Amino acid sequence: MITEQRKETKNVTYKEARVYLDEMSKYGSVLGLDTIRGLLRELGNPQDDLKFIHIAGTNGKGSVLAYTSTILSEAGYRIGRYVSPTVVSYLERIQVDGRWIPEEKFADLTEKVRDAIARMEVAGEHSPTVFEAETAIAFLYFKEMNCDLVVLEAGLGGELDATNIVKNTVCAVFTSISMDHIGVLGNTLEEIAENKAGIIKPGCAVISAVQKPEVTDILKRRAEKLGLEFAQAGRAQIIREDYRGIRFSYKEFPELYSPLAGKSQIVNVAAALEVIRTLRKKGYRITPDAVKNGVAGTVWQGRFSCVMEHPVFLLDGAHNEDAALRLRESVESYFPEKKLICIMGVFKDKEYEKITDIMCPLASTVHTVNLPDAKRTLPAAKLAGTVRGRCPDVHVKADGSVDQAVREALAEAGKEDVILAFGSLSYLEQVKEALDQERGVGR
Fold it and tell me: How many CB atoms neighbour CB 348 within 10 A?
């Protein structure tokens, strides 16, 4: 086993830590709490000394996490963030007050986790998955940093996700729940909602974004069964919006500005503010200025992010039907009559036919690409065949090159046109790097 081969090595470097975890990722993921429970036991159960805002849902988890944690940091609390996937850097997934875990600290904590896994294997226990190892690293770091609260994003689902090992949940938060991971989390919307509702713990408050009625009913029933407070976000009052951001009011919070644009963010920021309202009721000191500055200071890449003007170049991680519908609504609202050039890459296990049905009729041209994960990507040529029925002008590269797609999209676009890269968060960093290369940024 890879752990047995390395367990005598000491003082691993960041590069060695990443190689170790990358090798673990080859063994896939398994839902369940037994293995993460054993790993955390070996590490002294650091999660038991922390308090959590636990977020589950299909779309919007990262954005709600970003809003909530930024506001709380602005209010003076030390806030841990745990999120995946990331766009800018691997280290982005573990943060305290918006600062990424240092490479040296990550390497040190990976070594501790590696040694704990070695002890488990010697005892004949199952080896943890890479997500379980990363979750343990995060908990160790947050405890070491004496975080007041940890805003924790569930990975897959809720009930059997490794993050659900936590006990001290202050708020269980639900972003928009829709059909995704079908057959893994459930075959119906109700089954998926029941799975995600598994993060609700005795004594916590339950907060939900706007949901379909059947989802709201499930969450509300679960809360009522445990005698818990249930709050659902309302609608924000929009003052002005465009692709650069949103100016709005929400309940007792007037005249706020969010730099995160897109129709989905209107829903997400309302959910985050409902979390803040609940925390204030629980005695957390969060001033109106902290709310205002926190919302305005929120940064979250890959969510209708504008990375260039003239032409406008947007990055969006929409990768399922519900997210694609929101993305289409944003494009139609902010860029009516504009020429749209798309770059698209998707995983083969996603509802890519529905995504193409929704988005590709808007496009004048679609460039299909391969994603970095060669095992999971839908080949660019196959995606092009699906797109061709919705947009006849499809460009596919022999190797699915993202760099070439960016180069050709820029060459085609006029100053008043719009370029949109979407379909998965996993390749947006590569798109941004290719764009910077073409523009000579950083040379």
Answer: 13
Integer-rounded Cα Rg, in Å, for the chain is 22
pLDDT tens-place string over residues 142-198: 999 999 999 999 987 788 899 999 999 999 999 999 876 555 676 789 999 999 999
pTM of the model: 0.88
Beta bridge pairs of residue 173: 55, 207
The pLDDT, as a whole number, for residue 352 is: 92
Distance from chain centroid for Cα 402? 22
Kindly state the tokens that stand for 414: 């006029």
Tell me: the pLDDT tens digits for 236-261? Answer: 999 999 999 999 999 999 999 999 99
Q: Of the candidates 387, 336, 345, which has an alpha carbon nearest to the alpha carbon of residue 365?
A: 387
How far apart are the C-alpha atoms of 145 and 325, rounded to whole Å?
40
